[in-house]
Amino acid sequence: xxxxxxxxxxxxxxxxxxxxxxxxxxxxxxxxxxxxxxxxxxxxxxxxxxxxxxxxxxxxxxxxxxxxxxxxxxxxxxxxxxxxxxxxxxxxxxxxxxxxxxxxxxxxxxxxxxxxxxxxxxxxxxxxxxxxxxxxxxxxxxxxxxxxxxxxxxxxxxxxxxxxxxxxxxxxxxxxxxxxxxxxxxxxxxxxxxxxxxxxxxxxxxxxxxxxxxxxxxxxxxxxxxxxxxxxxxxxxxxxxxxxxxxxxxxxxxxxxxxxxxxxxxxxxxxxxxxxxxxxxxxxxxxxxxxxxxxxxxxxxxxxxxxxxxxxxxxxxxxxxxxxxxxxxxxxxxxxxxxxxxxxxxxxxxxxxxxxxxxxxxxxxxxxxxxxxxxxxx
Length: 378
Known about the structure:
Layout: E1 4-10, H1 16-26, E2 31-37, H2 42-51, H3 63-71, E3 81-85, H4 91-100, E4 104-107, H5 115-128, E5 132-134, H6 142-152, E6 159-167, H7 172-175, H8 178-181, H9 189-192, H10 197-213, E7 219-225, E8 236-242, E9 248-254, E10 263-270, E11 274-278, E12 281-288, E13 295-297, H11 306-310, H12 322-337, H13 350-368, E14 374-375
Parallel strand pairs: 1-2, 1-3, 3-4, 4-5, 6-9
Antiparallel strand pairs: 6-10, 7-8, 7-14, 8-9, 10-11, 11-12, 12-13
Helix pairs in contact: 1-12, 4-5, 5-13, 10-13
């Protein structure tokens, strides 16, 4: 089988996200990591590339060198798709340059640092026709995909309540120290954008709210917490969301939820039942109804949908996790590149990244206007 030639920008030796993407890319044997620029320090980048066993000539100083060299190679040799795993402020210029030079793109979220930048990428992609994925990782979990399918098939009926929580506590070690909070890129608007918490994890919750329901959120009302006057970016927030007059919900995100690790919890209720899923226990999907005992669905069983089963790699009872979730997204991208797409929502596309940037900006706008309802659609 001819493998897709993958390039990587960022994600070097000390990067957690780099490990996640590399494992995911190798999971279904669709990709071959061909080259990249892994670190701003070229020596570190070369050392890391050698560790990966790459051809020394395909380890590049920067994106400019990579694009120039790869574009001069025969079409059947050059890198086809590039994963952008850099800090937020580099996403837009790198993705733009890649699109303009004919590459497919896989980009970490948030897509850009502004909604305007996201719309520019969308316009370029519409001209080039390139595959463009934004890695909202959690949509790749088999039981999340099962949840989406059940909702689409009307198992829980007409949706009227969505409650999504994403709680972490990691920023506590930085936020309470003036020097530390002033010297992390996550809290620097020049590098991270206008939002920290909503931009980092709140956007996952927003994407999940639209991915699972298949319906776009119409309005938001936000109350954000910056904690200290000298801190320019939110580190906690609550966002009321409205799909329609009769379907409403709440997104709760925090990076100061002391003691929490990665508590991403999704609850969706309809007039016939409800569904609950927790990222820290991803193999359990709970189905609630008023006339039957609680049902627990698990991955790998024949009762699950084809969409769920396609991303299930182990027999029932064998835990799968975040590497598998990202791997399923890479599988969806590979199928799209090869024109073999099987399922709607097999990977989060550019439009979802654009929606995420709109959500971030409108949420901050709602807070700054005094916690008022703001329309989420242009």
